[in-house]
Amino acid sequence: MNDKYEAVIGLEVHAQLLTETKIFCGCSTKFGNAPNTNVCPVCLGHPGVLPVLNKKVVEFSVLMGLATNCKINEKSIFARKHYFYPDLPKNFQISQYEEPICENGFIPIELKDGSKKNIRIKRIHMEEDAGKSIHDQGDNTLIDLNRTGTPLIEIVSEPDINSPEEAYLYLTKLKQILTYLNICDGNMEEGSLRCDANVSVRLKGETKLGTKTEVKNMNSFRNVEKALEYEIERQIDLLEDGKEVIQQTLLWDADANIAYPMRTKEEAHDYRYFPEPDLMPVVVTEEWKNEILSKMPELPDAKKERFINQYNLPKYDAEILTSSRELADYYEKILSVTKDYKAASNWVMTEVLKVINEEKISINEFPISAENLGKLIELINKNIISGKIAKEIFSEMLKSNKDPEEIVKEKNLIQITDTTEIESIVDKVLMQNQKQVEEYLSGKEKVWGFFIGQIMRETKGKANPQIVNDILKNKFEMIKDSK
């Protein structure tokens, strides 16, 4: 990016709410059902039908507002937003405009240099989703109205974001909060989290905003980052060439890594907003707000700080372990069995997450229970098994989720701690490898690892490593003294 310019970015994020039914009718919101089966006269916009507001949608919206430091408006109203798309059966969308349910909040993000920045939230409002147009089924465009009327909240940031990196951090944090609250699954591929970006550039030091464009069709946070990088460079190149930036909507093509124009950008008046006559104002009393607040779970930032303070974990560990609510819960269930906080963290961050990433599964699908992993850690700490044997048992547990104590008994994997037995094995290894003994005595200390490896092989990894080290050290001292 040209150092003369700065980017000004505002994001509009649509989050599909995890309610069982739609916002204004009783139709199912289940994803993946046969096309046009989750529909009724209300969401199809038949004449004479009346919408009835889903109470759960209001509660989820207020919960998100409270989690993002917003003011919850006691009174908010719905409005009709008019536009004419084939997948919008009523030819208007019920949304909120002048009086949204939540306003003036913020989300803190932490930049790579460790500094913190608050991204202000202008508003959070409730609205219904449109249907889906399918363009890749031959010559005709097909319409699936299953999604029509699915409840959304739109989270609109102020133009406080100044780089694609900040946008990525903000979106990651937003998704984390939504999933912690369990009000949205955050799945961009299935369309339950969608992001549009308003982008402009201006000379550094300027206070006046440049002409903005809106970029759509970004189905991952990395694509948002790439699309913003592209659009910022494109606008700077235009200005450097003495040309104007045109206010328009652009679609991001992830395969070609370019954005191309879709239409000139509408202004608010183009939508002919007016109050929805079929719905009463939404009134959130102080009592109802407090009732919703009482259901608030521990949020990611608070959980991260608690993990650092309560479990004495490094910041890096705490960030990874609290990246999702389910992962944090899994970690804390391990601690119901073992109090070795750091060992539990290491096992989750290395072995557990390695399997999850390789198998592309969630922590909820991970085959080893937290309790059994805690037992495995305790077996190491009690010197019943070695760390090496623990890895073998872990592999076995992945297949069966058996209690690790059972596996140890079945396979006779108990660690050898008998010093007499280990000493005889050390003597045997030294006797069979006289050349390496001479090399070690002549100063080649790297050979030490060779001896440890041979001893562990002889004991099938069951010898206590510390006892092996101590005996081997004593043996070499005795050899040196005898010379």
Based on the model shown, name its key terms.
single chain; 483 residues; alpha+beta; Arc Repressor Mutant, subunit A; 3 domains; 9-stranded mixed beta sheet; 15 helices
Computed over alpha carbons, the radius of gyration is 30 Å
Principal-axis shape equals elongated
Number of domains: 3
Number of helices: 15
Strand tally = 16
Average pLDDT works out at: 91
Estimate the helix proportion, in percent: 25-40%
| Poorly predicted residue ranges | none
What is the strand content?
15-25%
Structural class of the secondary elements?
Answer: alpha+beta
> How is the quaternary structure best described?
single chain
* N-end to C-end Cα span: 70 Å
Strand order of the largest sheet: 2-6-7-10-1-11-12-13-14
Largest pleated sheet: 9 strands, mixed
Describe this structure in words.
The chain folds into three domains: 5-291, no CATH class; 300-410, no CATH class; 419-482, Orthogonal Bundle (Arc Repressor Mutant, subunit A). Helix content is 40%, strand content 19%. It has 15 helices and 16 strands. The strands form four sheets. A nine-stranded mixed beta sheet has the order 2-6-7-10-1-11-12-13-14. Helix 7 packs across helix 9 and helix 9 (370-381) packs antiparallel against helix 10 (387-400). It starts with a strand and ends with a helix.
